[in-house]
Design goal:
Structural class: mainly beta
Strand content: 25-35%
Number of strands: 32
Helix content: under 10%
Shape: globular
Strand order of the largest sheet: 1-32-31-30
Largest sheet: 4 strands, antiparallel
Number of helices: 2
Radius of gyration: 20 Å
Distance between the termini: 8 Å
């Protein structure tokens, strides 16, 4: 029988412990799980703390009725995904459905998992739903306006350090609610029909794009700090770097680096509109896919190209980067790709349907992704276990959060 083991870490335990105690608090202060939210954390970096699959074996495919939503994974390994059939699904590691939570509208919103296991997800039914870990309703918040003005929640919620739930609605509002009770704390205006999911900095500042092409910086009290204008709509989630730089992609074909004061640092031009959120690699490299059919790698300091990887069809899926700096993303060509940090293909697998969902990685290294054809798909190594994965030790979690030493804590699956 195959088991999951941790490779010996090639440094003294005493040194490791000293390094861990010096680390800053993690950005995931109010999120919990193996992949707790869209783009993993509150800053939407796309950084997984696990090593992803080295092989492209499809372990299982479960039909959930059409998926734009990106899966979230809790600390027990349960996978959550929303569906076109107006249902939030909880799926076990073996692909069986654990429970179903119905809403009155289809779900493109990716779930976010709170510290207490509550699952937050938006729906076309004009509600943000808070769902208990057993699949029952905890509370729901109505975003519509009387008498019948709709305000569907298409984007993905996130939770800040002080337990504030942030999300947007289609009528052009940013909402800050108490994550425990659902009580409204404040709202802020952006352009209607905006599809950018908010990101939260370590200081509580909220960043979100809108349909007019503006990136908004909103203080923790709901007041606007500044706006930065791009040349076309922003339908992606901004990513916030370790130094506070905000990276955002736009339908004008550019990826922008914005200083925390709202001034432009650089702009990198692709050859097509961009609907893929930027990913920040562990070495600081910025990654994104474009409608030009290429996956791009950009130097964070200068905004110059490092490399391009050709897919040949547009890429809407936002990449996830694993602890070894390997990248995982889907394409409109119906394939899931893994590319290393040098831009070389590690593997690809054809899942037979267009992919807009972004991949999630669990503690076993399994990669989960949804397809527009309706399936949640688990991709992994031939020798890995699909259930009952142990949690990584606190020392390893600390090590992989530290810049420059993440390679010392590489997890391997061995037989």
């Amino acid at each position: 029988m195959h088991t999951l083991n941790l490779r010996n870490i090639p440094i003294a335990v005493g040194v490791a412990a000293a390094l861990v105690t010096c680390l800053a608090p993690p950005a995931l202060a109010q999120l919990d799980g193996e992949h707790p939210a869209f783009r993993v954390d509150a800053r939407r970096t796309g950084r997984s703390v696990y090593a992803g699959a080295d092989d492209s074996l499809i372990h299982w495919r479960t039909d959930l009725g059409g998926i734009l939503s990106s899966p979230a994974i809790d600390s027990d390994g349960t996978i959550y995904a929303g569906s076109f059939n107006s249902t939030l699904y909880a799926v076990n590691r073996d692909g069986s459905v654990k429970w179903e939570y119905p809403t009155a509208g289809w779900i493109s919103s990716s779930p976010a998992i709170g510290k207490d296991g509550t699952v937050f997800v938006g729906s076309q039914d004009n509600y943000l739903h808070a769902v208990n870990p057993d699949g029952t309703n905890k509370w729901k918040y109505w975003t519509g306006q009387p008498p019948s003005l709709p305000a569907p929640v298409y984007t993905s919620p996130v939770i800040s350090r002080n337990n504030v739930l942030l999300f947007t609605s289609d009528r052009g509002m940013v909402y800050a609610n108490d994550a425990d009770t659902g009580a409204s704390l404040w709202t802020a205006n952006i352009a209607p029909y905006s599809l950018s999911s908010p990101s939260v900095g370590d200081d509580g500042t909220v960043y979100v794009g809108d349909a007019n092409g503006d990136l908004h910086s909103i203080r923790a009290d709901g007041s606007t700090a500044w706006k930065f204008h791009t040349g076309n709509r922003i339908g992606t989630a901004p990513a916030i770097g370790d130094d506070g730089t905000i990276y955002v992609t736009s339908a004008d074909g550019n990826c922008y680096a914005i200083n925390p004061n709202g001034t432009r640092k650089w702009a990198y031009a692709s050859m097509g509109a961009i609907g893929s959120s930027p990913t920040i690699g562990y070495d600081g490299t910025i990654y994104f896919g474009s409608n030009d059919g290429y996956f791009h790698a950009v130097n964070a300091a200068t905004g110059t190209r490092k490399w391009m990887f050709m897919v040949g069809m547009q890429i809407s899926s936002s990449a996830t980067v694993d602890i070894n700096n390997n990248l995982y993303f889907g394409g409109q060509d119906g394939k899931v790709y893994s590319v290393n940090s040098s831009g070389l293909l590690r593997w690809k697998t054809d899942v037979g349907s267009r992919i807009d969902s972004s991949p999630s990685i669990d503690s076993l290294g399994t990669v989960y992704i949804g397809t527009q054809g309706g399936e949640l798909i688990a991709i992994g190594d031939a020798n890995q276990v699909v259930a009952n994965a142990p949690e990584p030790s606190s020392i390893i979690l600390g090590l992989i959060a530290a810049p420059g030493i993440f390679a010392l804590a590489r997890r391997r699956r061995t037989s």
